[in-house]
Amino acid sequence: MGDPRAVAELLAAATDDDRMAWDELVARFTPRMWSVVRACGLNDADAADAVQGAWLRLVENLHTIRNPAGLGAWLTTTARREALRVLRRELVPLPHDIAEDSDPAAAILEADAHRLLWQAISSLNEPCRTLLTLMAHRVGNQQSAVRLGLPLGSIGPSRERCLKKLRTLISPEETVQ
Amino acid sequence: MSNDDYLLAALRLAAGNDPVPNHVSAAASEAYSLRIPHVVTAASIECVAMRTVRGVAGPTTVRFATDDVTFDLELTVNDGLIDVAGQILPYPGEGSHVDVRTPHMTMSRQLAGTGQFAVTGMPPGWFNVVCHRPGKPPVATRWLRIRP
């Protein structure tokens, strides 16, 4: 997010009956929520439920968000929890599972760091550079193995290793909002 | 699950090849109209999925509570639709009613003296139950998602 104050202002306006402010929040944060729930492995219908569930949680908590500037992280964390709940077929969160604390890793999405991510990927050696690009474009393991000339069984471990390298490269930015 | 979910999501978001479907954004926008002024939210305190003696999936019971109201809900999937049978305890008094709401429709029921109510044939997906009590703020359950 470029301007966290703007988010806090939008949330305050939405709390105060301003539908346009709510729609601005929806436009700003739904794409990253969608990406998060899809990354959890949900199909389109379940992903739609998880994102809708996260917005309904905001309706439930509209007056009690502790850190309005961190609303984006709160929403992505909540969307991921709803996605995991869909995967576990849980009906409703129990009291201990209220999304108050955002996961620090969500800051990668919060920072809206598309350019930073591509720069980091470009600086990696092969096969990480190509493998992460293929992952970004949702290319499956089998096709990735063919394109990279690697055994299929090595794609999983390579993917883990490459994501770890990428995380290290962008780690200073992970903590910057 | 690892935090790689977020990293993977950021990569795919940056690639821009999985745009949000319009109906997802529309549903997020419509959620705003589901706010209820001065509502008290009841927390879920118990959720039990029952099975028959032959192991077939049966109704699910969920209990929500505030300091002064308890919602007992029994949810049954019937031909792909959802039936809700519930009871508000203690009985909130004459003139009280419940709204069983989905994001797209609301079904209202006057409460019997026992606090019981029932709604049948709801579409699967998200819903909640709101109890309106004369002279007191409304109480709502958290939103639940149920699909066959």
From TrEMBL, chain A:
Biological processes annotated in GO: DNA-templated transcription initiation
Domain RNA polymerase sigma-70 region: start-end pairs: 25-90
One term of GO molecular function: DNA binding
Signal peptide: none
Keyword Transcription regulation annotated: yes
Transcription regulation as UniProt keyword: yes
Keywords, in A-Z order: DNA-binding, Sigma factor, Transcription, Transcription regulation
NCBIfam families registered for this protein in UniProt: sigma70-ECF (TIGR02937)
Family, as annotated: Belongs to the sigma-70 factor family. ECF subfamily.
Name the record gives this protein: RNA polymerase sigma factor (Sigma-70 family)
Protein species of origin: Nonomuraea endophytica
Lineage: Bacteria, Bacillati, Actinomycetota, Actinomycetes, Streptosporangiales
UniProtKB/TrEMBL annotation, chain B:
Organism: Nonomuraea endophytica
Protein name: Uncharacterized protein
Protein origin, superkingdom: Bacteria
